[in-house]
Structures
1.
Amino acid sequence: MHQTLLLFQLFTIISCYSYLPQLEIDLNAPPKQRWMKAVQTVLELHGYQNSFGSVFAFHNQHSFHILNKDDYDTIAYFLRKNFPEHALELEGVVEALNRPEITFEYMAGWAYFHEIAHVTNQFQECTGVLLSAGDQVIHGRNMDQAPGQGRNLVLHLFIKKDGKYIGEVVDWYWFKGGFITAQKYNVASLEENWRIDKRLTKQSVMLFIQSGLPSLTQSFREVLTNDKLNTYEKVVQYLETHEVGCGLYYIVSGSSKDQGTIITRGPQETIPSLKLNTASGITYLVQTNYDHWEVDPEEDPRRTVAEDLLQKMKINLKNEFGIYAVMNTFPVHNEGTFVTVIMNTKYNRFTTLGQEAITFFDDE
């Protein structure tokens, strides 16, 4: 009887998730070819309108409406000038999409999506959890965005360089050549969350682009591919110091005890990082989209809910299953959650769960 109930619960849980297609990305392949198979996979599974088309239309209205033709031309020019390999990758994406309205200039704008969309400050949901559990750190990540069709862009990617696999990525921003959720094997697990930045302007973003600085999603790609960033400490130092063009939070975990850091960044700020420290009683950290020294907004208590669950967690739940339970509790898991990832760098475990909209459970 107990076994039957357990199996029923397991199948009920599994049925609530969507399959995430898995692909290999070989960074030694010609740049134009690297992302073509990923684009084709999404189109074959979901069609254009139920994937890229809806996402592009939504963000044309809510993010890119602040750009004009001259802005797109400027971004494209400086992307080609400063990052020619990245530009070639985007040319391959444009070719694979094969639609007259999707030009290189348009995709160059997407390369700097986070910096541009921060001007409107409309998108501000994601949750990261770090838990010290014995000699390891467990990292839970919920990626939240809009519109719902963006779920159909989420892929689980195995990144290969010089003939060997260097890490894994689960993301829907891959089509612009970068990532915000990744694990570099034996080194670190990485997550970026949106930080509200009301001082950012289109002019400041354009100056950032013209100065030759890479887009936000290139930071994790640099971590994955740079052989010198081969320890957790070096990764944290890089993410704490490299120049950024918008507000963000980096959540980083390593392969040893207490290797967990939350980094708060902005173009004009240097803020001390938060770190796990079990000796001082800091056994978990939670980051959503608000500065940790501020109280959660009443209408968005994700951090408060997650911290309360972690505080009450029994010793036998201080593991990956326990973190999954936290990540799957409303409102930590909410209407905008595209994907949940549970990462453990000590064992290079990278568990991905494609999330259906939470309205799947509603009575509507």
2.
Amino acid sequence: MMLEKIEELLKEVNNLKASNAEEIEQLRLKYLSKKGEITALMADFRNVAADQKKVVGMKINELKQAAMQKINELKEQNAEAEESADDIDLTRSAYPIALGTRHPLTIVKNQIIDIFQRMGFTLAEGPEIDDDLHVFTKLNFAADHPARDMQDTFFIEQSASEVTKNILLRSHTSNDQSRIMERQQPPIRVICPGRVYRNEAISARAHCFFHQLEGLYIDKNVSFTDLKQVLLTFARELFGPDTKIRLRPSYFPFTEPSAEMDISCHICGGKGCGFCKHTGWVEILGCGMVDPNVLEACGIDSKVYTGYAFGLGIERITNLKYRVADLRMFSENDVRFLDEFVSAD
């Protein structure tokens, strides 16, 4: 009876198959572990008749040796298969994988940063989620300014007692400037790039998020002339040496006097075309002298120091350089659109 059981197990062992290491381990446990088939046979060996012990003992030993040899063979085969496997991920893109490029907004942002860094500006970045104190209050926004309305700003938390404690998605990168001014005394010369958010209807000309870059320079005897020369240098570096600029009076809560800056249309050379609406000029940024109230709110003596600030939209500059028809294309990640900027990188 036991000899028949041994022969049956011997046939099983000789025909063992496994496709991975886990299956091999399960087979080892089944036949060679303390609770395995062969161990159970050895435990029953004491019940075998004395005249059969020699034959049965030899058969059990033969079975054990066969099982150990088969398990080792399966382990070797599995190891060889793993070494020779191609390890193909069927979910990845097919070869050859095309190399990507920088996003057009990143390309233009880096160009702008490079220009201002060569003029002595350092790079500073701040939080996209900030409090009203740094986004509005310290920048001379009145308590009832429309920018604080839900129609313009995304609020995360609103304080019932004090407006300065409201938490919101910043609507401009000027919060970086207020934080820098409150922790650092002049001279200050920084540029602050980053993403900003406004509650606007998404269309070809507007989005609920976009990218800005703002600049700030504060020191003794800083004048509007200094601002104009820096912006002229910037425009010529970015759009070409023949670029002209003009400054038109405007209003911003944080600067006084304030201005909008236009550049001569680089498509028609200022002669007038459909792109510049036949005016010869294209608006690119806002600027002005930092309001004394802003300096004082941030702990800087406005009687000793003056400064200028400017801010521009990176999407707008990118549109001027590459004439992108729809602002939404910048955030859709359509590879066909992004491929058009490979040579610009």
